[in-house]
Amino acid sequence: MIKSNAFDYINVLDKAADASWLRNDAIANNLANVSTPGYKREDITFEKELTKALKHSDYHTMDAKVKHLTTDQLQARTYKDYNSLSYRLDGNNVDPETESVMLAKNQIKYEGLLNSINSEFSNLRAAMK
Predict the structure, then answer these.
(1) Where are the domains of the chain?
(2) Calpha distance 12→72 (Å, rounded)
(3) Residue ranges in 33-95 assigned as alpha helix (H)
(4) Residue 91: left (phi > 0), alpha (psi -120 to 50), or beta?
(5) 42 SS3 class
(6) Are 71 and 11 within 8 A, CB to CB?
(7) Contact at 8 Å (CB) between 67 and 5?
(8) Could you say which DSSP state residue 73 is in?
(9) Strand partners, 77
(10) Burial of 107 by CB count in 10 Å (0-12 exposed, 13-18 middle, 19+ buried)?
């Protein structure tokens, strides 16, 4: 993305949308491996990274916080969920119902992020007129 103050929110929303896309892939992979013995579910950590990056400037406005973020700070990472209980004796910890709910939740989040990105671009177009 272009590095300019006008694109600060768009850059953050872009990273969030990328993380949501990765989470969709992880959930689909979990559902595909629901019958695989010993498989441990995967998830994406992004929201914690975003919260951590925004907390560095507690007493600033959201605009100032987002302005000082670098997109390098916002990296979505995949991790294996070893800590949750296993639903079967073979060690698999994927619950298909939970994964389906997570998939629906993530799809709604992704749609919201895309709408927000489109809204930001609409604001930029309106400002250029």
Answers:
(1) 5-128
(2) 10
(3) 47-55, 62-67
(4) left
(5) strand
(6) yes
(7) yes
(8) G
(9) 45
(10) middle
